[in-house]
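Suppose you are handed only two things: the residues of a chain and a line of SMILES describing zinc ion. What would the bound structure be? This form records exactly that question and the answer produced for it, so the two can be stored side by side and reused later without any lookup.

QUESTION INPUTS
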Amino acid sequence: MDLHQKQTWDEYDRGDFLSQKLSAVQKLIPKEVETILDAGCGNGVITNALQNDYDIVGLDISEAALQHVTAPKMRGSITQLPFDDEHFHLCMCHEVLEHLSLQDQDQAIKELKRCASKYIMISVPYKEKLQQHYAKCANCDCEFHVYGHLQSYDQNKLNAMLGPEYRMVETQIMGPQQMRNPAWLTQIKQRYLGQWFHPDFHLTCPRCGADNFVHKSNFLTKITNALSWIISSRESYWLLALYLKG
Ligand SMILES: [Zn+2]
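ANSWER OUTPUT
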C-alpha cells in the first residue's frame, strides 16, 4: 500500500467497514469539543464527515490523499505538526501510528500531546498479528506487510504510550471480527505451504514493484484453512480510545 500513490486513495473505500468506525468516533467526541485536528486524515473519510459540526483540520503527508479532503486541510507530518501548543481541543489520529517506526511513533505522540489542549483520540488495529498479513513477492522474494503496518497494539501499550499525564476516558474494541491464527500456524502456512497473504486489492512489491505474489492453493492448504477456522481466535478489528489530559 503506497500512501503517496493516487490509485491507493482513489480506490480506498471500505464502505460499511468505515461507517461503523465513523459513528463510534462521532459518539466518542466529548460535547465540549469545538476544534479538532485529524492527524493523518488520509482521504478524509472522518474529517469530511465531521466538518459541519466542528472546526476541524485534516492533515496528511500525502498530497494524493488530501485531494479527497473537502474540509480545511494541510499537508504535513504527524511527527512535526505545524500548529501552536494546545491549538486544538481534541487531536485525533486514526490508523496512523501502526504505519510508523517506533521512533516516529513516539514523536507523533509527543506532537499530539503538544497540540491538544485537552483530549487525544486514537484508533489502531487491535492486537493485530502482523505476520499473518505478510505477502511474499513472487519476483524478488521480498516479504512485507500488505498494509505497511509495523506495530501492533493493545490497551496497555496505548496507555503506556500516552503516559501518566493522560487518563484514559474510554476504550472500545470494535469493528468486524477477524480470525487470528496462532503464530505457529502462520509459520507453517507461509514457510512450508507457500500460503502467504493474498491481497484482494492492487498491490505492488515495495522492493521491485512487481505485482504478483506467492499464494499456493492445494489440498494441504485447504486442510490448514479448515484448521485455522477451528482453532483461531476471533477479535474485533479496532481499538479506539479517548484520553483526557490531567
Ligand atoms: Zn519484489
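WHAT STANDS OUT: The CA atoms of residues 224 and 230 lie 10 Å apart. Residues 137, 139-140, 142, 205, 207-208, 210 surround zinc ion (CB under 6 Å).
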